[in-house]
Amino acid sequence: MNAEELNRTARMLVTDHKGLLAMDESNPTCNKRFARLGIPQTVEARRDYRELIVTTPSLGEYISGAILCDETIRQTKKDGTPFVQALTEVGIITGIKVDTGAKDMAGHPGEMVTEGLDGLRDRLREFSQMGAHFSKWRAVIAVNDRLPSRGCIEANAQALARYAALCQERGMVPVIEPEVLMDGDHTLQRCCDVTEEVLRTVFDQLYRQSVNLQGMILKPNMVLPGLMCPTQESVDEVADATVNCLLRAVPAAVPGIAFLSGGQSGELASARLNAMNLRFKSRMPWELAFSFSRAIQQPALEIWLGQGTNATAAQSALLQRARCNKAARRGEYCTAMEIDS
User: Which of 314, 325, 319, 262 is nearest to 290 (CA)?
Assistant: First the structure.
């Protein structure tokens, strides 16, 4: 492991007010999104959509890294150019999702643990040789009156730490994603308490596995009330709860925190990120960035609809969402940007 190179790559992923584009949806998840819009659920349609994304003009001005899935990292543009090369040519660092998904956790009804450690060292070697410089592993934490259990939190935290250590051994930056889910009717305070407990446990395990904190990126949820909670706090209240939680739980050595969107609308995710950067600019030891999927892609997907004639308009929509999020990193996002789009 070259610690200096790891640290440099991690800093590059959150530099210049840019963020990550998560385009690593599994094939079943991508197919479900296609099906809702009447798009064919085929490998060719998925390839066409990924090409639309990686060839969006000026995308590198707003996006520092793109997270791909196993299928996408092996695909090429219609002219034969590998997607990894196309991203590299515009200054976007290639990343890869390496977990194999969250599965029901034995002995813990309603909870899940993420799998994929078996054979991970060999898979990381292959992906690194293909041009990936960072990777991602997602853990999912359900919340209700009795969940999550300590067993679930600890099992997922240990898996995240073991994954991170293997990544750094290979010279790849681990993006560590412990997601406290938005599903349910839990309050903002309940989400805050669970998120802090999860993050403290994750970092305890990272220390135990000798992970270099300067050579990683944290990808957490924002602190939010459940989608069914009758009280939905304001943008500023969410920003305050989120950053104060992170200040209590995330070491200053971590170079960047890149939020997942977790089902938020693109506009709301941008507004909340903007409020955090605006209200806490002088107090944060780490960069606050974004690693959004649907919150960047959805408008483009709804325009594209599998039709090549819609590609240019779809790319414009994708670029607009990326532009809004770069502005949010600077604390300069406003709703007028949506009206002007």
Answer: 325
Structure tokens belonging to residue 194: 């669970």
- Which of 97, 136, 219, 326 is the catalytic position? 219
Please state the separation of Cα 40 from the chain's center in Å: 26
Asked if residues 152 and 197 have their Cβ atoms less than 8 Å apart, the reply is no
**Closest C-alpha to 162, from 120, 219, 194:** 120
CA distances from 304 to 37, 40, 125 (A): 10, 12, 35
Q: Are strands 63-68 and 102-104 parallel, antiparallel or unpaired?
A: unpaired
What's the pLDDT tens digit per position in 227-254?
999 999 999 999 999 999 999 999 999 9
Indicate the pTM of the whole model: 0.97
Those residues whose C-beta lies under 8 Å from the C-beta of residue 189, and which sit 6 or more positions away, are 241
Query: What pLDDT score does 67 carry?
Result: 98
Q: For residue 177, indicate whether it is catalytic.
A: yes
Selection from 148, 331, 162, 163 nearest residue 235 by Cα? 331
User: Is residue 25 annotated as a catalytic residue, yes or no?
Assistant: no
Helix (H) or strand (E) holding 33: helix 27-36
Catalytic residue among 177, 179, 196, 287: 177
pLDDT in tens, 168-209: 999 999 999 999 999 999 999 999 999 999 999 999 999 999
Q: What is the DSSP string of 144-185?
A: SSS-S-HHHHHHHHHHHHHHHHHHHHTT-EEEEEEEE---SS
Question: Distance between CA atoms of 235 and 223, rounded to whole angstroms?
Answer: 11
User: What is the mean pLDDT of the segment spanning 266-271?
Assistant: 97
Record the tokens describing residue 326, joined without a space: 């770069």
Domain 3-339 in this protein, CATH class:
alpha beta
Looking up tokens 């515009």 gives: 90
